[in-house]
TrEMBL record, chains A, B:
Protein name as catalogued: 7-cyano-7-deazaguanine synthase
GO molecular-function term, one example from the UniProt record: ATP binding
Family from the record: Belongs to the QueC family.
Organism: Sphingopyxis terrae subsp. ummariensis
One Pfam entry name: QueC
Gene: queC
Cofactor binding mode and count: Binds 1 zinc ion per subunit.
Length: 230, 230
């Protein structure tokens, strides 16, 4: 990671393991962190508490939690009354896909970047151990970076925006190991799409399965409390 | 305009003259209209009332007014305590530019399009009589349409999204004439960035100047009540 000392960066912080490590890498690079969390009225709004803990842990200069009620649109198991699949990670893009979510969220980070005179945006997408969401793929991130130049006043004036996706080519095991290397407590983060009434990770949704497999493959203790054991 | 009978389209509806005519053209094309208005805590929130009137006038099947508080970001005369310029339309991009606004709004329309199984989005941008905002230019709109394919599940499955910007190459006089041709009452719409306490158009901001000049150049009666006469 390049040295970002003295630079303000915008970190898209969901509260999940990936965004936690992404924020940790921005901190390690010496950046001044402005964290953005979108409260999109998601099924697993408990992740907002994790985002707040992580923002504190990385010493964020500012943490904006922005309400944006995507339940008004619906169309996803995370924003409508559609069951979260529990039968394992499949080949197709699953119903937990939220229409255009990463494009919406990156667009918001870009607006915030301009307003804070930042040109660096961090997002924790990865396209190896993931659910096949199109908006996690490298070509989407590259396309967004290109469009950022056309979409903004700063881009028009020649500022080069950089969309940093440092986990892009990591497996979930790599990410779990990276959390350990950074000395971050992965127990701060939240992954489950369908938390139990007792506030546990369900253990069966795609996101729980990927998380659990990551710690196992990395040979690391998993701090997560799952309702269903492996 | 192509025939859109039976198709659901998403219309980005600010409540201004341009979005009004844009919605009128979608209606004329026979489309079923889902209108999206973003309440971004803008200085001229009175435009939301106009958006509601226009949505009714065009017979929108659905009108979503979505709160998204861009004042949390600031960085614009429309979303922060910065004076709205009153000295005429200049060469530079003015401080009324809202960071990444059209990218944020188009991203939202794209998410809504996917959720409503629509592939057609209408936006009333034009790049002739405008304030030089980069996110009104044809290359931005084309770039967004390209990225829409990479950003979405539907795009991944081969659905071709179309971003319709039917006012792209119209002057403000053309747009005023188009409103008349469509039989729409331009008095429904709101343009002013800095409404007076009495609820009048200020008459001096860029948006008022462009609006007034449009009606004058078209040789049409201007239904607008300006605080300062020409």
């Amino acid at each position: 990671m390049q040295d970002l000392s003295g630079k303000t960066v915008i970190v898209l912080l969901s509260g999940g393991l990936d965004s936690m490590v992404c924020a940790g890498l921005a901190r390690e690079a010496g950046a001044r962190i402005v964290a953005l969390t979108v409260d999109y009225n998601q099924r697993h709004r408990v992740e907002l508490d994790s985002a707040a803990r992580i923002a504190t842990a990385v010493g964020a200069a500012e943490h904006i939690v922005l309400p944006l009620d995507l339940r008004r649109f619906g169309g996803s198991a995370l924003t409508a009354d559609i069951d979260v699949p529990k039968d394992g990670v499949g080949e197709d893009i699953p119903v937990t896909y939220v229409p255009a979510r990463n494009l919406i969220f990156l667009s918001l980070t870009l607006g915030l970047a301009e307003a804070r005179r930042s040109q660096d945006i961090f997002i924790g997408v990865n396209a190896l151990d993931y659910s096949g969401y199109p908006d996690c793929r490298p070509e989407f991130i590259a396309g967004f970076q290109h469009l950022a130049q056309l979409a903004t006043r700063d881009g028009d004036k020649g500022v080069d925006f950089a969309i940093h996706a440092p986990l892009q080519h990591m497996t979930k095991a790599d990410i779990a190991a990276e959390a350990a290397r950074l000395g971050m407590d992965a127990g701060m983060s939240w992954s489950c799409y369908d938390p139990t009434p007792e506030g546990l990770h369900c253990g069966l949704c795609d996101s729980c399965r990927l998380r659990r497999k990551g710690f196992a493959d990395a040979g690391l203790a998993d701090p997560t409390r799952y309702a269903v054991e492996a």
